[in-house]
Design a protein that fits this description.
By secondary structure, the protein is α+β, with helices and mostly antiparallel strands. It is 46% helix and 10% strand. A hairpin with an 8-residue loop joins strand 2 and strand 3. This is Cytochrome P450.
């Protein structure tokens, strides 16, 4: 019998059917296992996980709300399930997850110590470790090392006095370079362009001793200057972080420019590390500024040492985390001041009472400018720039949640290894258990609240709370004090547009790695005319 005599004709129809059945069975099993992994907690049942590719990349639609889920459904999501903690179990792709707007549940996930069952998932870490492992990207025990090395820079008072004077200098440089000093009225079509540059220059100067001029001449031809490279990186950090290396190398001119920018930054930072290490760059202005601490750790042997790539990884993670979040919020604050002239007046009065008109504000004023800090807290509450925290259960674990809806009685549910937890910071900030009338813009709710209080939860809670929270508070108070003292802010309205319509058009979130809003157009009017 020849080979061809034994050939059995393939019936493609049945083969496809068999594959189909196997696929459907595998998805049903996946779905049931997913439900079991979250103890059958009620919630979303969608084809894809919303926080990992491809679900996260698909724009908002009914069967795939994507990244905008927690914002767009902030008034209905938890109410719909009558619970502050709900599940999301995909039946095609992705891990099961739980979403929570409860601080008590969040605390169990982000606040438990080194033995915690919850870690940052690998995919999240990869997005923040493009330049090297760092404080943002690592989990215990590595994370502990990064935090211990960087911690002193954020606890010593010299960091904040230095920060205050850098912010003040850069504010004046901005008003001069933008030509505001010569004018009584200024129209700014996109406020973000200025707040981003401001916040980047502040962290560069305070953290790394790099003082960039507000304006610098563009590079010749294809050349990319350091300032342009930083700007390109800051503007396109999401791209650098999310897109695979091979896409960055495709032969498009703008990609080429970005990859040149990446090279410029890479070389600059390596040279800086080498120079600081050799002492050529001179003594750092602060003995324990962020860069000096990193370099010191680079030279250490033992537990608290860092490799070159960890140094650079931390530099970039702090550059990014230290300017994008604050810049987004400064823009939102200015938008709100424009919409609420009464609040603006109250803030101005506080500045005049504490600082007056005749002297520059100093760091010692920080503690007295409580209304300004409250204004900043309230804007971060309504638009939390760090809007999600994602964790993964590295082992089977338990969570204690309310027994029924919002009741104070609790029950414990089992959570299986591999389940993701999405701490919904927007949901927490709008939770009526923590904030009365949570949708109302009301900075006075923060008057008298300590900045150390757990109520200030938009910077996270527990050991992994934002290391730069005081940095952000001090920078915000300095910037806003200078700004509000000099300028009255109002929204630039379109013809016939009301302030409410302006809010609906402009204060609409734009979600990427942080939460911001659409381009904010504002008009500034000098409070004390130059001619007086
Ligand atoms: C409006 C301003 C800011 C907000 C709302 C904010 C929010 C947050 C949040 C929610 C986290 C926790 C993330 C997580 O655990 O998944 C975080 C962590 C972090 N933030 Fe901020 N942040 C702000 C400003 C800053 C500044 C100014 C710096 C640096 C100068 C900074 C550096 C960091 C770092 C390094 C971490 C990681 C800390 C760790 O894991 O130990 N942030 N931030």
């Amino acid at each position: 019998m020849g080979l061809y005599d034994t050939f059995i004709p393939v019936d493609w129809f049945y083969l496809a059917g068999a594959f189909g059945v196997v696929f459907i069975v595998s998805r049903v099993l996946k779905f049931v296992n997913g439900l079991k992994a979250v103890s059958w907690l009620p919630g979303l049942r969608l084809p894809l996980d919303q926080m990992s590719p491809p679900g996260v990349l698909i724009s908002y639609c009914r069967w795939n709300p994507g990244l905008y889920l927690t914002w767009n459904e902030r008034f209905t999501f938890y109410q719909g399930w009558n619970s502050e903690t709900v599940s999301s179990v995909p039946f095609l792709l992705g891990p099961p997850s739980i979403y929570t707007s409860s601080l008590e549940v969040a605390r169990q996930i982000v606040s438990s110590g080194p033995k915690s069952a919850w870690v940052k998932p690998i995919a999240t870490s990869q997005t923040t470790s493009v330049w090297g492992d760092n404080i943002l990207s690592t989990n215990n025990p590595e994370w502990r090392k990064h935090r211990r090395i960087l911690g002193p820079a954020f606890t010593q008072s010299s960091t904040y006095t230095h920060l205050w004077s850098a912010a003040q200098r850069i504010y004046h440089e901005m008003t001069e370079s933008e030509g505001w000093d010569m004018r009584d009225e200024v129209e700014i079509p996109v406020m973000q362009k200025l707040t981003f540059r401001f916040a980047l220059n502040v962290i560069l100067s305070t953290g790394f001793g790099i003082d960039l001029p507000w304006d610098s001449p563009p590079g010749q031809g294809d050349e990319v200057t350091l300032q342009q490279a930083l700007r390109l990186y800051a503007d396109h950090v999401t791209f650098f972080v999310l897109v695979p290396k091979w896409i960055q190398r495709l032969p498009f001119p703008w990609l080429k420019k970005m990859s040149t920018a990446y090279g410029v930054l890479h070389d600059y930072m390596h040279t800086q590390v080498a120079e600081r290490r050799a002492g050529i760059g001179g003594e750092a202005e602060l003995k324990s500024d962020i860069f000096s601490l990193l370099i010191h750790a680079n030279e250490e042997d033992g537990k608290l040492s860092l490799t070159d790539s960890e140094v650079i990884g931390n530099v970039f993670s702090l550059l990014f985390a230290g300017h994008e979040t604050t810049a987004q919020t400064f823009t939102i604050v200015l938008g709100y001041l424009g919409m609420y002239p009464d609040v603006q007046r109250e803030m101005y009065d506080e500045i005049i009472r504490v600082v007056g008109r005749d002297r520059e504000p100093v760091y010692e004023d920080f503690g007295k400018l409580q209304k300004i800090l409250s204004l900043f807290f309230e804007c971060v509450r309504l638009y939390p720039s760090g809007y999600l925290m994602i964790r993964e259960a590295k082992e089977d674990t338990f969570l204690t949640i309310p027994k029924d809806g919002w009741s104070s009685e609790t029950r414990t549910i089992a959570i299986e290894k591999g389940t993701h937890a999405i701490i919904d910071v927007v949901g927490i900030q709008l939770n009526p258990r923590y904030f009365d009338n949570p949708t109302r813009f009301d900075p006075s709710r923060w008057y008298g609240v300590s900045s150390e209080s757990e109520t200030v939860s938009a910077w996270s809670i527990g050991p992994r709370t934002c290391i730069g929270r005081k940095f952000a508070f001090v920078e915000a108070v300095c910037f806003l004090t200078l700004f509000i003292r000099d300028w009255h802010v109002e929204p630039i309205l379109r013809k016939g547009e009301s302030t409410e319509e302006w809010r609906e058009r402009v204060m609409v979130p734009k979600l990427m790695l942080s939460l911001g809003v659409q381009d904010v157009p504002v008009k500034l009017t000098r409070r004390t005319s130059r001619k007086q």
